[in-house]
Design brief:
The protein is of the alpha+beta class. It has helices at 2-47, 101-122, 170-179, 238-243, 257-260, 272-281, 365-376, 387-391, 416-420, 432-445, 453-457, 460-482, 491-496, 498-508, 515-523, 544-563; strands spanning 55-56, 79-80, 144-149, 161-163, 184-188, 192-196, 212-213, 216-220, 226-231, 246-252, 263-266, 286-290, 293-297, 328-333, 355-359, 381-382, 409-411, 424-429, 486-490.
């Protein structure tokens, strides 16, 4: 009897433990499932509001600038505007702030975490033990010259600079340097490409170049302060190199060309190709031709390339026509990059003034950052994270936007809280028609592409205009209301008068730069994110209804600017 009781007691203990274990497992599984479903609902909910018509609360009839936060609270009695799909008359008294970037910001922050952790893992140093097997010439054009020392303060290869932190290869770097007529291509940190026509003076141990190319396993792409240098193979066809020579115009020659330009050549039967080739090898961005004389140099205060002359004054110059009497010269842009303004770094001490570079998406914020960075020599930051921009050299993208190590911070945000955390701001405003089209292209084809005709003719385009047109207006209105200290820059004015407007921006940032550096920026004005020409469409993307809405927003913003003693919008797109 005692034995049977003992067995029963032992069984109950096992059963109790088993039940406890099963209960705990069940609760854990249920919790995980609940968390997963909650995350899925949040993601679906955040993506489901971007392309809907704008509901308007009962108390806001007739107002075109709507706060999308109302979209998330339909219980307050919103109703859809009938007849014009929210295209109603805007009024100045309403200061509502559309937050169309809420979803985009959360997605970008998720992307930032994933991309940054992947980037950090990629940065792990390569083990040098097995690095001797790293190939140098297998699939590369040109010979491997060796590993050389590199000083970031005084570059040994002073030509063009390229970055690709995801896909850099030796061939990619060599081709980029070859297209710009350089003789050598040097790679560092596995992702940075430098071009030049002279080999670095100081060699290093082969094992010091221990960084693997980001886009090509087994290939040497330099190291920390080390360059893996390759000779650039000559292009098969000289015509491609010739296409990279750009005619800048006919200009009045300076009084003393020898003092103005550091290199010169006198050659009978001089051609554009001869002069451009000579100046490219000397690593100068300008080739200047006067009769049989070739001069190489940079745009300077003596020769700023402003106020070009009539091209007829330079006609027949290759035949040494006497009617010009040496007063005019032809100017060509060589494939060589003007590197006097390409050096950039982070601020050595934290900035005391927190400055925003604010704009509506598609208003030229990336271009303005390019100009500011090259003019001041300091990186700009970003409220977001864009891997494509980071890969092209905007290193401030990775830096935390509150670090104050950058000269200013890009933002598309609006609203009282987001604006008041900045001490001052450069507010960049662009024609809303151009901005809307640029942002639509970016959404569907990236920074350099164009949306397809199918995209433009789909319902996505009118939904996009309905949503984003009001944001264009409210973005400006919010910054006018809550901004502490503003500098208003109109994109069209910056494009037309680059140097004067860039000086305003630099002075606003409390920086002083030389005239030669500003001329260098002007010489490199386009940067890496300029779309190649305007892709003409065989149809008008804006309906009359869209135009009526956008024009009312333009008038609203123009009036608000003038009431606050700022210059109104450019007359070229203000309705009359």
């Amino acid at each position: 009897m005692a034995k049977a009781f003992f067995r029963l007691q032992k069984f109950l203990r096992r059963t109790q433990f088993l039940l406890f274990f099963l209960t705990a497992a069940y609760l854990m599984a249920g919790s995980l499932l609940l968390l997963q479903r909650t995350r899925l609902v949040i993601q679906q909910g955040s993506r489901g509001t971007s392309n809907q018509a704008l509901p308007v609360p009962d108390g806001m009839a007739g107002v075109g600038i709507v706060d999308p936060r109302m979209l998330q609270n339909p219980r307050h009695g919103p109703r859809l505007l009938v007849g014009m799909n929210t295209m109603q008359e805007p009024v100045l008294d309403q200061w509502h702030s559309p937050r169309w970037l809420v979803t985009r910001n959360s997605e970008l922050r998720q992307l930032r975490r994933r991309w940054f952790h992947r980037f950090i893992s990629d940065q792990e140093p390569i083990q040098t033990a097995g690095f001797k097997a790293m190939k140098h010439t297998a699939e590369h054009k040109g010979a491997y010259m060796g590993c050389f020392s590199d000083d970031s303060r005084e570059r040994t290869l002073k030509g063009a600079v390229f970055y690709d932190l995801r896909k850099m290869t030796v061939s990619h770097c060599q081709e980029a340097c070859a297209e710009r007529a350089y003789a050598y291509a040097g790679l560092a940190y596995g992702a940075e490409c430098y071009c030049g026509n002279k080999l670095p003076a100081t060699t290093s141990k082969p094992e010091d170049c221990n960084s693997e190319c980001k886009g090509e396993k087994g290939s040497a792409c330099g190291g920390v302060n080390r360059l893996s240098v390759y000779r650039v193979e000559e292009l098969r066809a000289g015509a491609r190199r010739r296409r990279n020579v750009i005619y800048r115009g006919c200009f009045r020659a300076p009084e003393n060309l020898t003092d103005t330009f550091p290199a010169s050549l006198i050659q009978p039967n001089l051609t554009v190709e001869m002069c451009s080739e000579f100046c490219s090898k000397k690593e100068f961005p300008l080739a200047v031709i006067r009769e049989q004389e070739c001069y190489c140099g940079y745009p300077t205060g003596r020769f700023p390339l402003h106020g070009g002359a009539d091209g007829l004054l330079c006609s027949g110059m290759h035949n040494a026509s006497s009617h010009t009497e040496g007063k005019y010269c032809l100017v060509y842009q060589t494939p060589v990059q003007d590197t006097r303004c390409t050096d950039r770094k982070f601020l050595t001490t934290k900035s005391k003034v927190f400055v925003a570079l604010s704009s509506f998406p598609g208003a030229g914020n990336t271009w303005a950052r390019h100009l500011i960075e090259h003019a001041t020599g300091y990186y700009t930051g970003s409220y977001y994270f864009d891997g494509a921009l980071y890969n092209k050299g905007f290193k401030g993208e990775k830096d935390h936007w509150r670090s104050r190590r950058t000269i200013c911070v890009k933002t598309h945000e609006s609203g009282k809280t987001e604006i008041e955390m900045f001490d001052s701001a450069i507010l960049l405003i662009r024609n809303p028609y151009k901005s809307l089209m640029a942002e639509f292209n970016r959404k569907y084809a990236g920074h350099l592409g164009y949306a397809t005709d199918r995209n433009w003719k789909s319902k996505d385009w009118p939904d996009f205009v309905n949503s984003y047109a009001s944001w264009w207006a409210s973005h400006v209105l919010d910054w006018l209301k809550y901004g502490k200290r503003l500098l208003i820059i109109h994109y069209e004015d910056l494009k037309q008068s680059l140097i004067p407007k860039l000086k305003e921006m630099v002075e606003f940032l409390n920086m002083t730069v030389s005239e030669d550096r500003l001329l260098c920026v002007e010489n490199n004005r386009d940067g890496n994110f300029k779309r190649s020409g305007a892709k003409q469409k065989d149809f008008e993307p804006f309906t009359q209804e869209m135009k009526d809405l956008i024009n009312r927003y333009i008038l609203t913003v123009d009036k608000a600017l003038r009431e606050r003693n700022f210059t109104g919008l450019p007359r070229e797109y203000v309705p009359r």
